[in-house]
Write a sequence for this structure.
């Protein structure tokens, strides 16, 4: 599928996957993009975009990266809610991380709608902890992109070796197996199992990570930022996607507004693991 062309006359991120995801959603869930955004909330840990019909899309806010980028306040602050979803989702192609996060959350809202319409017939679905899906063995070399802390110790217990590649110095651990994500060119080609945080959709790095991990027997993309209609990710070699289906959007939005994170969102969302139905 050809990626969507973002903005005429404006520099945008070159990654193909986000553009292809948008083109797919425009084709399969066009009605979502004719809705206006009822609420847009940029919280401390997550950003939420809520449609008129109540569907809520999520993306990690990536607060540390935004602070370090010194981009200044979001230009559209105070004018995001009320826009057509189509106008918000185009921000996903922006080089400005604060804009891209809103765009990915808007895209996630459309995928939440489409998942409820066709999820069971389109994918093999399991619920709960993604690690049960991955069947890690003592022979595995696991590379995790993003310090997904709840997974670290279980993976270290099961795998031959684990490397955690993390962009943010504040989130990176001090142990020798914690490395900056610039080590990806060295470590991802060695991996037999790769786990990538879905927030890489927002900072434009997902395409390259997937390319480098092509020899892995499993490539998992995980986190609330994950699209729940991940056909395009499967086309690029991802084997399983772990995301969050927002079951109670009003309560989940309240969590975002009050600075809550993944642990607090779990009470109002279902963790879903998606594989292609073959």
């Amino acid at each position: 599928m050809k990626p969507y062309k973002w903005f005429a006359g404006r520099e945008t991120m070159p990654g193909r996957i986000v553009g292809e995801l948008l083109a797919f959603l425009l084709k399969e869930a066009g009605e979502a993009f004719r809705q206006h955004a009822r609420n847009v909330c940029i919280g401390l840990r997550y950003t939420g975009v809520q449609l008129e019909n109540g569907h809520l899309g999520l993306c990690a806010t990536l607060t540390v990266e935004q602070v370090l980028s010194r981009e200044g306040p979001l230009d559209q602050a105070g004018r995001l809610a009320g826009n057509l979803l189509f106008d918000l989702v185009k921000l996903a192609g922006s080089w400005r991380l604060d804009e891209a996060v809103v765009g990915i959350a808007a895209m996630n809202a459309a995928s939440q709608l489409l998942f409820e319409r066709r999820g069971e017939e389109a994918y093999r679905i399991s619920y709960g902890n993604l690690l049960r899906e991955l069947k890690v063995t003592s022979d595995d070399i696991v590379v995790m992109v993003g310090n997904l802390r709840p997974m670290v110790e279980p993976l270290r217990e099961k795998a031959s070796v684990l490397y955690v590649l993390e962009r943010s110095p504040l989130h990176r651990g001090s142990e020798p197996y914690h490395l900056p994500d610039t080590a990806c060119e060295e470590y991802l080609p060695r991996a037999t199992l790769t786990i990538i945080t879905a927030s890489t959709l927002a900072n434009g790095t997902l395409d390259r990570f997937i390319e480098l991990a092509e020899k892995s027997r499993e490539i998992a993309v995980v986190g609330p930022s994950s699209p729940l209609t991940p056909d395009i990710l499967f086309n690029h070699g991802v084997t399983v996607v772990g995301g969050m289906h927002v079951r109670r959007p009003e309560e989940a939005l309240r969590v975002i507004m009050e600075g809550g994170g993944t642990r607090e969102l779990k009470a109002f969302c279902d963790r879903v693991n998606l594989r292609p139905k073959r």
Q: What stands out?
A: Residues 97-122 form the longest helix (26 residues). The chain has two domains: 16-121, 125-276. The radius of gyration is 18 Å. The domain at 16-121 is CATH 3.30.390.100 (Enolase-like; domain 1).
